[in-house]
Amino acid sequence: GAQYENIKVDVVGAKKNVGLISLNRPKALNALCKDLFVELGKAVKDFDADDKIATIIITGNEKAFAAGADIKEMQNNTYSSNVKAGFLQEWEDISNCGKPIIAAVNGFALGGGCELAMLCDIIYAGEKAKFGQPEINIGTIPGAGGTQRLPRYVGKSKAMEIVLSGNFVDAHEAEKMGLVSKVFPVEKLLEETIKLAERIGTHSPLVVKLAKQAVNQAYETTLKSGLLYEKSSFYGTFATEDRKEGMTAFVEKRAPNFKNN
Ligand code: CAA
């Protein structure tokens, strides 16, 4: 596979169908420098294109998932350099991935680290995880979705509190507010995340992709057009072999054999 400097890439799970990306700049608490994001974007794209991979996991280490955008790297940016370079624009590439991405968060997920976790589809956390948007402490505001995704996930009052105070929330609070889906002991987090990825991997990849797209519509549109989108996509599953196989297997009381078709 490709050689990376700021991330590690592995294929894991009993069926070797889970793509694991570990952010790997431990000395900088996995601060998300440009090179790291370019590598991350490539790794996600490659896993998305690989038929053997069902689900992708992004994780960090026990101290940090990621402590944000790289402050040292952007310290001397200017308004015009940001505009000209499209600073942080490549981050949205992650959201073009058709396959589910699960963030497995131990330690700090701050600023861009929290925003990266929110770019993923599901967030699992270790019980020592800390989430926050501390940009306000350094004289700026979130720039990769923190002011937009956070209120959609946790509501206005909590999002305002997090963004305006710069205070951190721990894993259990983050779970209570709906940012995190489940919390595990630190050393169990990765194996539990892989279990979820494998479970998703037992389903039809084609239908998993449609389901992900449909849930994401809920964050893009009105209820009425979202419901219309869902209905069309649901109807559309009836044009697939896998829908036929799934229902036939149920009626015949056997396990389905999905063909991604
Ligand atoms: N960028 C660059 N370097 C960072 C970093 C970041 N976001 N976060 C940590 N580091 C570096 C530190 O500079 C330090 O490097 P040196 O050893 O070379 O000095 C190393 O990582 C270890 O960090 P600390 O010594 O600070 O570790 P700590 O345990 O005392 O504190 C922390 C941990 C509370 C997370 C603290 O590092 C911190 O506050 N980090 C910055 C968090 C932050 O403000 N993030 C938002 C960034 S802005 C952003 O993300 C914009 C956006 O929306 C996209």
From TrEMBL:
Pfam families in the record: ECH_1
Keywords for the protein's UniProt record, in alphabetical order: Fatty acid metabolism, Lipid metabolism, Lyase
Family matches, as CDD domains: crotonase-like
Keyword presence, Lipid metabolism: yes
Enzyme Commission (EC) number: 4.2.1.17
Entry keyword Cytoplasm: no
GO CC terms, sorted: mitochondrion
Coiled-coil spans in chain: none
Gene Ontology biological process: fatty acid beta-oxidation
Gene Ontology terms, MF aspect: enoyl-CoA hydratase activity
Family to which the UniProt record says this protein belongs: Belongs to the enoyl-CoA hydratase/isomerase family.
Protein's recorded name: Probable enoyl-CoA hydratase, mitochondrial
Organism in which the protein naturally occurs: Danaus plexippus plexippus
